[in-house]
Amino acid sequence: MIKLWIIFVTVTTINGLSRVHVKRQFTDPFLEPDSVVVDSYDDSILVRDPLSDWLSGLFPSTTKQPPLGDTPKDCKSCECGIPNDHTRIVGGMETKERLLPWMGLLTYNWRFYCGCTLITDRYALTAAHCLKGFQPRYIRVHLLEHDVKHLKNDTIRGVVGYKIHNQYDANTYNCDIALIKLDKPVEFKGPLRPVCLPDFKKSFTGMEGIVTGWGATRENGPLADKLQQVTVPIMSNQQCKESKYGANRITENMLCAGFQTGGKDSCQGDSGGPMHIVSGLGIYQQAGIVSWGQGCARPDYPGVYTRVNRFRSWIERNSADSCRCT
Ligand SMILES: *[C@@H]1O[C@H](CO)[C@@H](O)[C@H](O)[C@H]1NC(C)=O
User: Fold this and answer.
1) Is 34 designated active site?
2) Residue 24: pLDDT band with limits 50, 70, 90
3) Does residue 176 have an active-site annotation?
4) What is the CA 167 to chain-centroid distance, rounded?
5) Is the pTM of this model over 0.70?
6) What would the pLDDT profile of 224-254 be if each residue is shown by its tens digit?
7) Which residue of the set 21, 53, 121, 129 is catalytic?
8) Is the CB of 151 under 6 A from ligand 1?
9) pLDDT over threshold 70, residue 68
């Protein structure tokens, strides 16, 4: 009973007593042991100890699963990053249902706590801080949902394992990235599609970042019921180092976005979800993963995201045993 409804993880920085808020919601499932749903998942293939999984850097595998690195032979061709409707929505508003069909949510013991995105037919991308210390058996990946208070439950997957980047640092949030392996692949038909990975080497500075999530709509506020979308300008890392965070806290693996005056930002509960950029052809690429920030939408404290294109090879290598779209 150590963690009781801890909403914010706080760390003390060398600059003084400023606090970093990870944008995750989490609860202790063991407060409610009776509500743990025991269903048809095969426990023998679940990771029991995330730490040893993380250390070994390997997914547990059953004989049925192809080994890491083996691309399945029966992948159909498919396209990533195409929204289901091209209507443009101005930031800070509810998104249309299933507009961005790769947008997923994670529940722990059936309780919403983080966002994620579908990147292949068998893997979801999220923040490392959404998984570290969490037991895979209580995590579910929910796709094609819009209202977190009224889940439709028509596309849910369990988790056979996850991989946290081995340089993830829980004190600085450097390399805040992880992959979740779904217990069975999804089919890319109907509205379901994965997001595109971002182009290598681009900084995305000056572009509009589109962030989606079910997180709080203001600092310390309640979670949003319906999927929200906010548009924020992406800054250069140099600009971000000159923000109130200071140069030491911003690494090359991070990307910052927000207005100097604050006002629009990702917030608690958005962690693990995407920041997209839209290419000229209207294709959505995931440039960032919601990671951390000082409060939400405060002036001179932009939102900080994991810079996904720094990890493109890592993602491709660790999801190679699944079908991707291009
Ligand atoms: C979806 O699952 C949740 C959690 O088990 C449940 O509360 C909810 O009523 C379900 N929704 C539907 C439409 O069955």
Assistant:
1) no
2) low
3) yes
4) 17
5) yes
6) 999 999 999 999 999 999 999 999 999 999 9
7) 129
8) yes
9) no
